[in-house]
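Hey L., structure's done. Input below.
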Amino acid sequence: MARIPGSLKALLSHLIDYAGLYPPAALPLPAVAANYDAFLDSPESWILNRLILPAARLPEARLEGHWRVSLLVEEEPGALPRQVETLETKLARGLSLPTYCEAPLAEIEGAYAKIRTGGLTPEAIPASEAVAEFLCQAAARRLPCKATAGLHHPLRALHPLTYAPDSPRATMHGFVNVFAAAAFAWHGMDRPETIGVLNESRPDAFEFLDDRMRWRERTLTTAQVEAARRDFAHSFGSCSLTEPVSDLRALGWLP
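Output:
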C-alpha cells in the first residue's frame, strides 16, 4: 500500500464515528453491527472511531469486546457496558462519561460541544459563517467538540442529500474542510480565513505532506494537526464509512 502523508494521517485518524442507524442510511441494527465489525477489520480501520448508538437500542445491541461506543442519551444513563466511552446529549452539561452537548456554546458546562453540519434538506445545512463562528468560539474557549450529520464528502460541493433517486441537492460541507478549518482555528486563525477554508472547493488548494498540511498560503505542522485533533476537533458522525473513503480515493488522497 502506498504511504499516506503524515499530515493527512493526523487529520483523518479515528475521525469517523459510524452512525449507520441514522438517516440517510437508516440501516437495521444487525446490519450496522456487521458493518462496524467489518470496518474494524478493514485497511481503513485507522479512520474509524466509535459506533453511535441511541440509549434505547443498547439493550438489543450485542457489543463485541473490542468495540468503542458513543451513546445518545436524554439524561444520565446510569451503569453502562465498558465499551461505552462517551455520551451525546442535547443537555448543556456533562454527565458521568465525557459528554458532547448539542447546545449553545455559552450554556455548556463541564462537557464538550457538538455541532450539526447538515441534514436531509438544504435548510438543515448551516452557513459557513455559522460553522466558522462555532469553531472560532470553541477554539477560543479551548472547548473540545465533534460534528454530526452531512459530512459525507471530503470537500465542499453540490451533492444529493439522501440516497433516494429524487433526493434534493445542495452544497454540503466537506469533512476535510471542516476539520482543516478546526485545526487552523485551534492555532489562531481568525473567522474570515476560517470561512475561507470551509468554502474551499478546489482539491489543489490543500496539500498534505509528511511534515505539514497546507491550505493556500497557510500551513500547519503535522504536530499542530495532531494537537488540534487530540485536544479540540475529535470526530464526526457519518452513516457511511465507505462513501468518505471512496471519495478520498477518487481525489488521490488515499491509495
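The mean pLDDT is 96. The CA atoms of residues 8 and 208 lie 6 Å apart.

-- N.
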